[in-house]
Amino acid sequence: MGRMSKDPRVENSIHTDFTHHMTYGEYLQLDKIVDAQSSRSGHHDEMLFIIIHQVSELWMKLILHETKAAILSIEADDLSTAQKRLARVSKTQAQIIQAWDVLSTLTPSEYMEFRDSLGQASGFQSFQYRMIEFMLGYKTPHVLEIYKKDLVLHQQLEEAYREKSIYDVVIRALHKAGIPIDEEVLERDVTISYQANPSVRDAWMRVYQQTDQYWELYELGEKLVDIEDCLQQWRFRHMKTVERIIGFKKGTGGSSGVGYLKKVLDQRFFPELWDIRTEL
Ligand code: HEM
């Protein structure tokens, strides 16, 4: 036995001839992904800044994929599949919350070295983030303007803006289960951000007080709470990380910066699911 055979990676069965087979890199199109980190400033720390955004956008892609599928499952009355998908959404959100720890290693002095090279680019223009907000029911038509220069993105976002959110679909599921919901909620204009309604609060009270009878809706309600909880944690960590790196300077997107990010924290997605906790 030669010295080479002691290497645990050397096994006769390992494939090494890929002339006619697809490799790992080809399957994942890694040539595109790992070639997309072009630094504008040439500064060492810009790599972290680019990768953290790209990784977050990739996870957002999965969040959208799973949330879309969950909406379809709820509409098809398959609540257990929807729960499975939404559990994956909140686990994915945990990854992008954790990502702030890596970005926190970027100091104000390091960021200032390359901040000017971003121009007016800002996460404020994140298409996928707006798609997620629309799907969760926070409809802000003014953000559509940003995508005017890309007709495909503009159209996709406009469609999501006109679609029912996951909460609209869940409220319909409550109604289908025989729980009274006001007609004005079922017929509401879904291009407007959802506003709390007493019949929806009563419906959730019923579900949370009679869990045996409404087990699947109860579990679904908790999945929505997980998602809103994670989204708020993400927003909070973003705001605090931004304060840590730029203090109270204005954002590259033109907003007041931390002040703006604090204000966004007040916005709620599934208000009754939080309100009932005081009464239960
Ligand atoms: C040094 C790091 C970062 C700084 C200083 C920063 C700063 C800001 C500021 C000031 C805003 C408000 C809009 C503006 O005026 O630009 C904003 C918005 C936003 N940023 Fe960041 N950000 C950072 C990292 C990230 C990362 C890693 C992501 C992940 C994708 C991200 C995603 C977003 C999103 C989605 C918004 C829109 C929030 C909303 O409108 O509710 N940011 N950012």
TrEMBL record:
Reported cofactor(s): heme
Reactions that this protein is recorded to catalyse: L-tryptophan + O2 = N-formyl-L-kynurenine
Positions bound to substrate: F49, I50, I51, I52, H53, Y111, R115, T252
Keyword Thylakoid: no
Pfam families assigned to the protein according to its UniProt record, in alphabetical order: Trp_dioxygenase
Co-factor note (free text): Binds 1 heme group per subunit.
Gene3D superfamilies per record: 1.20.58.480
GO process terms (BP): L-tryptophan catabolic process to acetyl-CoA; L-tryptophan catabolic process to kynurenine
Enzyme class: oxidoreductase
UniProt-recorded Gene Ontology molecular function terms: heme binding; L-tryptophan 2,3-dioxygenase activity; metal ion binding
Function: Heme-dependent dioxygenase that catalyzes the oxidative cleavage of the L-tryptophan (L-Trp) pyrrole ring and converts L-tryptophan to N-formyl-L-kynurenine. Catalyzes the oxidative cleavage of the indole moiety.
Family, similarity comment: Belongs to the tryptophan 2,3-dioxygenase family.
Complex and partners: Homotetramer.
Protein name, per record: Tryptophan 2,3-dioxygenase
UniProt source species: Bacillus coahuilensis p1.1.43
Lineage, highest ranks first: Bacteria, Bacillati, Bacillota, Bacilli, Bacillales
Gene: kynA
